Amino acid sequence: MDILLSGYTGLGNFVLKTPMLQAFKHIFPEANIDFICGNDPAVAELAALQPSLIRKIHWLPNNATWQTKMQFFKSQILPLQYKAIILPFDAQPNFLLVGSYMAKIPLRIAHKPVYTNKRTLFARAIQQFFTIFWPTALVPLSKNRHETLLNMDLLTVLLPKLGQSAAAIPPILPTSIKFANAIELLEGYGLTLKQYIVLQPCAANGEAIVKTWHPHNFAQLINKLQTQFGQYKIVLVGSAGDRNAALQTLLPLLSNPQDIVNTMGETNINQLLNLLQYARLVVCHDSGVMHFADALATPLLALYGPTDHTRTRPLRPSSHTLVAQGEWCNAMGYFALTEADLAAKGVSYQPLQSLSVEMVFEKIIPFLRAK
User: Fold this and answer.
1) How far apart are CA 127 and CA 118, in angstroms?
2) What angle do the packed helices 288-295 and 269-277 form, to 10 degrees?
3) Helix and strand totals (H; E) in the chain
4) Residue 235, strand partner residues
């Protein structure tokens, strides 16, 4: 009994699916979950590090032609005879829905979409058309519900259709991800276990997006940390685009930039996970890095602004959040707006401006003084 899971999503969203995947494997240890993705190679890389949860990864670029996509479903997916396909709310491209019919997958389990704008309405109209004629179970996307539970709702609906009671679902497990140990990476950067702090000062490949703290604030925070907790090295993580942005906006403001370990643009997913696992503390935005640190149970301080804190917040006891207040607090709650919507309104760093450097620094101190 093989199941196909849509993975056209972000890194953090994948992490938030791991409790559902663990529960499915607990109930059906001999069954297989395969993963189809094609929007971000890093998501495929992360999925490949989870062989106990994901058997096979199909790579189908979302920018391929429709002809290429439909041929892929006929030649690559149809022969595998999947029993069902799972389509979470964050991973529902229309070509995948159509392709599932081409591949003769008999059952679709999908979150019922939330209609937020005309563009979404048009895209979802196509989905609704097909669900009228082919078996598709639409699962409510409940408000004020954490994303791990929203994903578990899909499993609750799927199980009876596979001849299993939903009562078989085990207690909700925390998010969890695996990686290959690469402790030598720390030595290469001159780092010691639990003697460094990881910061994520940029996001979206260096673009100034609405859920980031201002680089000037990060610069002041780093200067304070180096002055008062100089025994801990500062490690910056991010993409190559983040690195370019930091070189322009952040590093020129630092008192001792030569003491910073800048890994942005230098690490793959497995190396990043190693850096996060052995850190004393991670300070970041609502991002994939945040969900990685939470899943690894590394002490975490997450800075929240306009994103949906109820749905995406880290849940482990080792994780803490600071939520900005003001006009844009939770502006993206329950899919009301997107980052692009806020950017179109002229919003940039304003949502997190109520979080002062002193507030963040005071929140960090207990992490660094604890034995």
Assistant:
1) 14
2) 50
3) 15, 12
4) 198, 261
What is the phi/psi pair of residue 320, to 5°? -135, 155
Separation of alpha carbons 285 and 197, rounded Å: 15
Least confident of 34-43, 240-249, 274-283: 240-249
Element (H, E) at 119: helix 118-133
What is the reported pLDDT for 37? 98
**Calpha distance 289→268 (Å, rounded):** 13
Q: Residue 80 in 3-state DSSP?
A: helix
d(Cα 96, Cα 100) in Å, to the nearest integer?
6
Task: Give the list of residues 6+ apart from residue 217 with CB closer than 8 angstroms, or none.
Answer: 355, 356, 357, 360
> What DSSP state is assigned to residue 268?
-
DSSP-derived secondary structure for 295-360: HTT--EEEEESSS-HHHH---STTEEEEE--STTTTTTGGGS--HHHHHHTT-SSGGGTTS-HHHH
CA distance 321 to 207: 23
pLDDT in tens, 51-72: 999 999 999 999 999 999 999 9
* DSSP letter for each residue of 38-55: -S-HHHHHHHHT-TTT--
Q: Are strands 281-285 and 260-262 parallel, antiparallel or unpaired?
A: unpaired
pLDDT at 133: 60
Paired residues of 85 in beta bridges: 4, 108
Which residues have a Cβ under 8 Å from the Cβ of 116 and sit 6 or more positions away? 335, 336, 337, 338
- Judge contact between 283 and 290, C-beta under 8 A: no
Quick one: tokens of 360? Answer: 């963040």
Specify whether the CB–CB gap between 25 and 54 falls below 8 A. no
CB 38 within 8 A of CB 73: no
Give 223-236 pLDDT, tens digit per residue: 999 999 999 999 99
Asked if residue 353 has pLDDT above 70, the reply is: yes
- CA-to-CA dists, residue 133 to 98, 128, 130, 325, angstroms: 12, 9, 6, 46
Amino acid in position 55: R
Reported as a pLDDT band with limits 50, 70 and 90, residue 123 is low
